Amino acid sequence: MGKNQKLIIIGSGPAGFTAAIYAGRANIDTTIFEGMQPGGQLTTTTEIENFPGFPDGIQGPEMMEMFRKQAHKFGAKSIFESINKVDFSNCPFKLFSDANKEYSADAVIIATGATARKLYAKGYEDFWGFGISACATCDGFFYKDAKIFVIGGGDTAMEEAIYLTHFGKSVTVIHRRDEFRASKIMVERAKKNPKISFFMDSVLEEFIGEKSGPIRKLTAIKLKNVKTDEITEHQADGVFFGIGHVPNTEIFKEFIETDENGYIITKGKSTHTSVPGVFACGDVQDFTYRQATTAAGSGCSAAIDAERWLGEQG
Fold first, then answer.
1. Is 135 among the catalytic positions?
2. pLDDT per position as a tens digit, 78-119
């Protein structure tokens, strides 16, 4: 086991890097474990137009590299390993990586994010980020006057569909069953919207589009009716997955209190978890907003909470 760290941050999206920037500026010895996806979900995003300070937009990977450089400027260190086991029963806390290494820390910030549920139909890999998205509030703006499809039958799908009517020419909800899991009020709200229509008893079979080197464009989808097996093709400019997110919290559940969906519960408006000295920020504890700006804000809060907590320990 290496030397004990003052602060370890697990995860490297906007929340984790912002926490590292603030912790580094507070002269806290800080190590970031960047994990399976260094830079987090934004590294799979093409252009980001809604992060303050970038009026012309910026590519997701480029933004995350800027975050990383800023964190390193203030002394934070990155380790490109994934933490796959923790022991928070005693302080210093123990953390174990996929490189078979053991680490310890006086305080830990969890910023492991959440993973959007996806449908891996044929063509998915070709058009993810080029017509396929899992975040209407992130990408809806790019689909003005477009023919949009939303997959799902719960409240998330209804919320995404209603939001996307602000941009799209039409929005069609695709659901594999003949009735929705969404609350009645959300279903009624969607049905009353003149821009929204529905394909029930249907599943997405294939994404179709144009490919020319790195340039990709979704143009159509194939749907299959689960009762008749009939396959139909439909023009499509955009497809949004509205089937929810899964917080990346599995390795913490033995020690940290989570809600019924696995999101870490933080105390009041703070980032304190049920374990003193362990903090959580970003999408791992935020199932409401899930934006880069809100994640960064909570990363700042986590670093300040951790700094104050460490100070109280003497």
1. yes
2. 999 999 999 999 999 999 999 999 999 999 999 999 887 888
